[in-house]
Amino acid sequence: MTDAQRPRFHLAFPVHDLQAARTFYGDLLGCPEGREDPGHWIDFDLFGHQVVAHYAPEECGGAIANDVDGKKVPVRHFGLLMKWADWEALADRLQDAGADFLIEPYVRFAGKPGEQGTFFIIDPSGNALEFKTFRDEGQIFAR
Asked: Which of the residues 61, 63, 103, 118 has the least number of beta carbons within 10 Å of its own beta carbon?
């Protein structure tokens, strides 16, 4: 399946501050804005996927985490599978911008089936995002 044929996802999530969301998703991650209903929600283009920040401060809060590779991975999170070079470029851009990583970029399963790079960041409302990449996309579900 080519990238043009790949279905896009849509995700709506709560934020406590729409301007903080605009700064994080627009300025830091580089997501172009789409439509908005001022005071209620903003659409962002997250690398071709539609994500919508909805003003709902009562829905924002801390995340429960599980141990993975000795790191605390938020159970509730969303993110992207990216091409390796794009993942590295985003990690570099975020590091250069002084982004606060929940989990710094690192490679899991090096030299093994399913080798992948991953990192986690948290938006200003506590939503966890994971960005990951695979050396071989054919091994995304490898055991």
From this structure: 61
pLDDT tens readout for residues 44-68 = 999 999 999 999 999 997 778 999 9
Q: Does domain 63-143 have CATH number 3.10.180.10?
A: yes
Report the percent of the chain where pLDDT is more than 70: 97
Query: How far is 21 from 31, CA to CA, in rounded Å?
Result: 11
Domains 1-56 and 63-143 share a fold: yes
What top-level class would CATH report for the domain 1-56?
Answer: alpha beta
Cβ contacts of 33 within 8 Å, gap of 6 or more? 22, 26, 42, 43, 44, 45
Q: The whole model's pTM is what?
A: 0.90
**Residue 126 backbone dihedrals phi, psi, to 5 degrees:** 90, 10
**Tokens at residue 98, please?**
């002084």
